[in-house]
Design a protein that fits this description.
The complex is a heterotetramer, with two copies of chain A and two copies of chain B. By secondary structure, chain A is α+β, with helices and mostly antiparallel strands. Helix content of chain A is 33%, strand content 15%. By secondary structure, chain B is of the alpha+beta class. In chain B, 28% of the residues lie in helices and 19% in strands. Chain B contains eleven helices and twelve strands. Chain B starts with a helix and ends in a 27-residue tail after the last helix. The interface between C and D is large, with 119 and 125 residues. The complex binds siroheme (4 copies) and iron/sulfur cluster (8 copies).
Chain lengths: 390, 362, 362, 390
């Protein structure tokens, strides 16, 4: 097959996805079909995938994205090219054995092409035929794997590397992610929500899993109390050339740090726990010892009402198994969403529509000034209490 | 094909394998006990535990769209150097987790031999978070993997070196659905449609629900109508801003248009809470043509912005922080990008983006 | 009564007298030539011109709602000390413009004798900008002049001294129309209605235009209906937030309600572009009862806020700048004001006031 | 007349408006009526003014606010209590003679009660009867006074004291206000606009007339080029105890100032012309020599669509007679408003509705990055150019 345009993408230093497709195409007719169709797309500057198509495995409402080619006759391998979302392990940790097993299954039935990983976090198999779906699922299941979410369900939760390899983790992101994933298997596999729902767990305010930007429910580690300072280690950083005044003190958003050349002091009641000073001097500074997480809700991409970031609804919560408080909260929010959400309305949009205050009231959270950047500046207040004249 | 029995007997709702089975012994021993880390060189860092243990990480770039051959290759390397333990990052890089520092250089040498770049840690440009594009999505206005490839080719040296003022996170999304975190990235490349959907009045009544099609439009541009006695919809072209959401809901309203689809460039978003609050990405360039296979207009626009950032930003200053310090007018001046009416917001919160102060530089 | 001829012959569209006729000789000589000023003591400042000339200003507080007697009195003082030249400020103070410094003390002595306070310059609380209230407006939820009087009595010492961290600007408006600059003041006292308008279905069709009445509602709470065959409107009480705009448009929808009308307190707005950008005032206290004649709940709430500001703010730090430095949670903590759901915005730009970051103190 | 409640407001150190009403009431039945009605309002906690009522003088559509009492029988003096808005002189400068003349007219016909001044800036006469309106106007006119605005017209323009007594004035606020007032007499007196229109002129960014908060068209003085520094005067301030580092350098929003204890330097390309340093050290610092104004439009109180601040549409314009450029701009905006505004829609709301970009395009102003705080963050772009396929 001639692919002059795509061949151009095998040039240059960065690893080439075209080379990957070609490798797969050597073994798989499906991948070969994709290669041809993609070359056509490059030529015509347009996609050749048709819109949707409902396919899946028995008993599950999600986990498979149907995908059909509009040039299937020309490229029969691409005619059916469904995605299977395999629920990744917490923190994307694998052994080579486990990965090879996945490859074996996929080589047997699919295109041999994957995404490691999809943006939601799944291990993504690209290019399955409708008829093979059940087989693939049987084999996955036998090998202890399960499908991820799609449609109006709880999508596959994902998390940062957390305590497995990071000194900043304020709670166990992997354990929580696993627990949540297991607890909500039904919600994950059988779409019943008004729209999609995403959980993301980040161990600290650095938010290495971008949870504040793309999860309906963001659990972001944070702490209370004093940042612990190891003055010797501070001195060591300074000696090694770190300009503490310029790089740390001046960059502190709350101007909470003092450095006199010998001693570093932090005014912890001013600190907004942004992580910057700790990021720059991880050997010298450690977060306060009372660790937990802030809970934020509602972030999403622009469709329909505009992109949102998650916003704080619980400034601080301890995150410890069996996570009862957290789960009670999730349940209340889901009930609220179920009752009030219209079709294709994410929780963030719903909160915008009914107002954060009403949302908090309904789910029984006391409003706090921490939940806003500033109080209202318009006088259009819906007063609820008033006196009745006799 | 799976038999009825197989289907009946297979386990459902078992969830993913427990992560513990995938953690190497060093991690298991030091889980939650890490004290600090040091970045040793591009793509290599070490985490030091309170037990005194150390864990070395070597990070390697991946095109994300990979073959099983590729996976088997990295599995072999993991077997050779890490007892088979490895992970992927939230930006689709591969991380080899090493218990012994002696293995670092041989691993890197092997990776280089295979053409797999090592880097992306610390003050560098990491892998580009991206989406499906022409490879797999019906909604795409451009290809994602191709854009990633050409941009990473251009910026390669910033992945394999730590020569940036701070982390720089690039994302590509092939349509306004923005699968990923395009809306909060230092630089975002976004596929855009620029003409209204075309309506197939034949198919529409058969395959689409009129009310939900009408409701899908963020700007109330869709109205129900009757065409030859059949229900359908029409689009008020003046109100359409080409978001494609109607097409998501109703396949009979295709919006792809090879002549006009293209790419827009956005800058200055971030996700971390470090120093400044998370920020949305803002429009830099409203439109560049789709020029596959190598999108030269896009790569040179990105290079221009990155070069200026590298030259002018302070240490730890993310793209958006730098721009806010110098001011948007200066950003447009430095980059030579023309500021147009498209840059002025006109959606929901537009009013709060106008300059309601006389504070201005210059 | 004016005759037809008088009416015909009178001049129209002549505009106000030219200001030049009202400028004292020192001003005329030094118009546009002022070099700098010094604040000499509370209520007294001097402007120095590049010609070397000096002009002294003595500022005196006025209740704004004044009788011709009062005006004649200050005219006499102006004759006595300033050759008859005087002006009013944008905050309704009187400014005596003196060519000779010897006149300062005698003028102040005379003013004091008349019970007219001197002050309001520099780092002080100036006169309260206010509106009509029960004195003259049909729309009022409270009285403005009375509130001004009791608050200025309470804060008197901050007018006659310069003991504030910075200027502090208070405003009172008697309804949401906010005649004045209540929406951008350091402290604003705002009269509020808290129950929906009551509709007079008899009168409404006769005196109101239904479409414009319906359109007047910012929250689409008004719907046209038929009552006994006559057109009228109804209010969806769940959507009504008591703005009174329908009443402005349609007199048959009175909203005043003595039992529930009252006062809300807002803080942290500013107008100047100095240091920080102009800011809107934000809600501090959603409701305090109307308790005339001396509104003790209001004065003590204001005093509490002012005292804390004086104690904690830095020099030149306006109320809003201080609050933003310490953070809103701290403001509520220090003042002991309870943060409620009313404080959370739910109008147009509400979404952008939520805390979309983990950055939090405490 | 007994006024026990109002009497409470004659106590305390601040000058008392009640005493003023009482003084007037001694001479005027009208003021006496007001006193009684106000006492009643204080007792019942409600207003006793009726809604509106159209009254005025011949040939004018504005300038008088009709006001009728709903307890006119009880307080005949208050039965008709209209407001006359008299157009104040620029900068609220008066001579005692001029003021006395106004008092004479008002004592003759009215309540003897005034507001010096109304919030828009007018000299306000409170409490005229319908029958006296023409007489009052005849006498005002004969004494060279005219009415101000009300209703859907250009309201009485007002300005800060400007060059008359302020070293910071970047243009002649009084002259411009007078010129604008005279140029638009017709627009001021005959309401033809969709709604009210307010001009306010401030000589510098301190904005002592609050124009950015409450005028549809705000002309705010500013400058280009270098702040002029008199180092000796800086030293003098320092000697007298000003902590320049803390009070000036640290408070500069653009961190453009350096002070080494001897010399003050300003990085003028960073300076955002906020005025702070100049305000603190007026003897030492002077604005750059190229003076003019920024033009901002659209501020207003909350009704209907929420309060707005004015926003920049011209970052810098020279303001010199005959102000042709400025007036051409005003005309274009009015035309735009006439054509596109719906009833009771202020220009600021209209701009929000159609978008600042479209507004600028229609009135022929090139958009500039100075006009926004940040470019759009949502991708909902109305692309206007596109290629047609052949
Ligand atoms: C595969 C994946 C992109 C990728 O290449 O990684 C993807 C692909 C699609 N997304 Fe997505 N989304 C993917 C992650 C995301 C993310 C990121 C995330 O989950 O962290 C987002 C932004 C966060 C969010 O949820 O808002 C995202 C926001 C959307 C949206 C806009 C939703 C919104 O509320 O704004 C749509 C459109 C919709 O839902 O109607 C969408 C719709 C789609 C559809 C199903 C197309 C459609 O219109 O129905 C795409 C299927 C493509 C295909 O055939 O393969 N996808 N999508 C990601 C899922 C892989 C995985 O399971 O791991
Ligand atoms: C491996 C990974 C987590 C994972 O579970 O996969 C990770 C790991 C670390 N992150 Fe991260 N971050 C990872 C994605 C992110 C993301 C998410 C993203 O990019 O989509 C963010 C938010 C980015 C943003 O704001 O837009 C992120 C923002 C940070 C920051 C804050 C940077 C800032 O100043 O704004 C730090 C602090 C630092 O770098 O000093 C940090 C620091 C770190 C540290 C140093 C934490 C530690 O002590 O181990 C780790 C190595 C840093 C490095 O790569 O330089 N990590 N980090 C992710 C690697 C992605 C990659 O392959 O490049
Ligand atoms: C007389 C008056 C103008 C007029 O045409 O009437 C005026 C006059 C001066 N103003 Fe003003 N300002 C006047 C209302 C305002 C207003 C409007 C208002 O209060 O409604 C503001 C905006 C207030 C706000 O931001 O909310 C105002 C914000 C300023 C500022 C900026 C203060 C700040 O730091 O934010 C300065 C600078 C300063 O004080 O150093 C200033 C400075 C000055 C100076 C020093 C200018 C000068 O060199 O002559 C004048 C004496 C200041 C003083 O009173 O301390 N003037 N000044 C107004 C007196 C009102 C009064 O009776 O109190
Ligand atoms: C007299 C005065 C208050 C005062 O005590 O000073 C006043 C009094 C009234 N204003 Fe006002 N406004 C006065 C200055 C203002 C200002 C301040 C300014 O002009 O700088 C504002 C805020 C700025 C603005 O224009 O937005 C103001 C915003 C309003 C509004 C809200 C407009 C909006 O777009 O949000 C209304 C309601 C309306 O227009 O429907 C209003 C309506 C009214 C009415 C006509 C009541 C009505 O609903 O029809 C009041 C008549 C009271 C009376 O009987 O005396 N008045 N009004 C001020 C005019 C005196 C003068 O001519 O000098
Ligand atoms: S979010 Fe925090 S805890 Fe998680 S990997 Fe990043 S830095 Fe570590
Ligand atoms: S964590 Fe952030 S806010 Fe807190 S002291 Fe460090 S830099 Fe400052
Ligand atoms: S961004 Fe759009 S085109 Fe790309 S994968 Fe997501 S839905 Fe498909
Ligand atoms: S593309 Fe978007 S704006 Fe245009 S009609 Fe469809 S949904 Fe509406
Ligand atoms: S604020 Fe309201 S009540 Fe007060 S004068 Fe203005 S319109 Fe009348
Ligand atoms: S008071 Fe305001 S919100 Fe209520 S019905 Fe009237 S206009 Fe609508
Ligand atoms: S606005 Fe500026 S020029 Fe006008 S009085 Fe205030 S300080 Fe002076
Ligand atoms: S005018 Fe303001 S921004 Fe400019 S140097 Fe002075 S303080 Fe800084």
């Amino acid at each position: 097959m001639e692919t002059p345009l795509l061949d151009e993408l095998e040039k240059g230093p960065w690893s080439s996805f075209v080379s990957e497709i070609k490798k797969a195409a050597k073994k798989s007719k499906k991948a070969e079909g994709l290669l041809g169709q993609l070359e056509l797309s490059y030529k015509e500057k347009k996609t050749h995938w048709k819109h949707g198509g409902i396919v899946g495995v028995k008993g599950y409402g999600g986990g498979v994205i149907g995908r059909f080619s509009d040039v299937g006759e020309q490229f029969p391998g691409a005619a059916q090219f469904h995605t299977i979302r395999v629920n990744q392990p917490s923190g994307w940790f694998y052994t080579s054995d486990a990965l090879r097993k996945l490859c074996d299954i996929w080589d047997k039935y699919g295109s041999g092409l994957t995404n490691m990983h999809g943006s939601t976090g799944d291990t993504v198999f690209l290019g399955a035929s409708t008829d093979d779906l059940e087989d693939i699922f049987c084999e996955l299941s036998a090998a202890s794997w399960d499908l991820g979410g799609s449609g109006g369900d709880a999508r596959t939760p994902s998390c940062c590397v957390g305590p497995a390899r990071c000194e900043f983790a304020c709670y166990d992101t992997l354990a929580l992610t696993y627990d949540i994933t297991m607890t909500y298997q039904d919600e994950l596999h059988r779409p019943l929500f008004p729209y999609k729902w995403k959980f993301k767990m980040a161990g600290c305010p650095n938010d290495c899993v971008a949870s504040i930007a793309r999860s309906d429910f963001s659990v972001i580690g944070t702490w209370r109390g004093e940042i612990q300072i190891n003055q010797d280690a501070v001195a060591e950083y300074a000696e090694k050339g770190l300009d503490i005044k310029f790089e740390v003190v001046r960059r502190c958003p709350s101007k909470a740090i003092k450095w006199d050349g010998v001693k570093l002091t932090i005014n912890n009641s001013e600190c907004v726990k942004c992580m910057h000073c700790i990021n720059v001097m991880p050997k010298a500074l450690r977060q306060g010892e009372d660790k937990g997480a802030a809970i934020l809700v509602g972030s999403k991409a622009p469709i329909v009402q505009g992109a949102l970031l998650s916003s704080v609804i619980i400034p601080f919560m301890k995150i410890e198994p069996p996570y009862d408080e957290l789960k009670a909260l999730i349940r209340k929010i889901w009930d609220f969403w179920d009752e009030n959400g219209v079709a294709r309305e994410r929780i963030g949009e719903l909160i915008q529509r009914v107002g954060l205050g009403n949302f908090l009231e309904t789910i029984g959270i006391e409003p706090s000034a921490q939940m806003v950047i500033q109080p209202r500046d318009n006088p259009y207040i819906f007063y609820e209490e008033y006196y009745e004249s006799e | 094909m799976a038999t009825k029995e197989q289907i009946r007997d297979r386990k459902t709702d078992i969830g993913p394998p427990h992560y513990e089975g995938f953690l190497c012994p060093t991690i298991k021993r030091n889980y939650g006990k890490w004290r600090y880390h040091e970045i040793l060189k591009p793509g290599v860092m070490v985490h030091i535990s309170e037990t005194g243990d150390k864990l070395w990480t070597v990070r390697a770039g991946s095109p994300r769209l990979i073959s099983t051959d590729f996976i088997r290759l990295i599995c072999d390397l993991a077997d050779k150097y890490c007892n088979g333990y490895l992970r992927f990052t939230s930006r689709n890089n591969i991380e080899f987790l090493l218990g012994k520092s002696e293995n670092i250089e041989p691993l890197i040498a092997d990776l280089e031999k295979e053409g797999i770049p090592v880097g992306g840690i610390g003050r560098s440009i990491s892998n580009i978070v991206h989406t499906q594009g022409w490879v797999h999505c019906h909604s795409s206005a451009t290809d994602a993997s191709g854009l990633v490839k050409v941009v990473m080719d251009e910026l390669y040296g910033h992945f394999t070196n730590m020569d940036m003022p701070a982390k720089l996170r690039i994302a590509v999304a092939c349509c306004l659905n923005m699968c990923g975190a395009v809306h909060c990235s230092d630089i975002a490349i976004l596929g855009v449609h620029r003409t209204p959907p075309r309506i197939d009045h034949e198919k529409l009544p058969k395959i689409c629900e009129i009310p939900s099609t009408v409701a899908s439009c963020p700007n109330a541009a869709i109205r129900p109508i009757f065409i030859d006695g059949k229900k359908s919809v029409e689009v008020d072209e003046d109100r359409c801003m080409y978001c494609g959401n109607c097409y998501t809901v109703c396949p009979a309203m295709p919006i792809a248009d090879p002549l006009n689809d293209g790419v827009s460039i956005w800058v200055g978003g971030k996700v971390s809470n470090a120093r400044s609050m998370p920020k949305f990405t803002k429009l830099a360039i409203p439109y560049l043509p789709n020029n596959p296979p190598r999108w030269p207009e896009v790569t040179s626009a990105i290079k221009n912005i990155v070069d200026l950032y590298v030259k002018n930003a302070r240490n730890y200053e993310r793209m958006g922080e730098w721009i806010e310090r110098i001011g948007w007018p200066k950003f447009f001046e430095l980059t030579g990008i023309k500021f147009t009416k498209y840059h002025i917001d006109d959606f929901r919160y537009a009013g709060r983006t106008y300059r309601t102060t006389t504070q201005m530089k210059g």
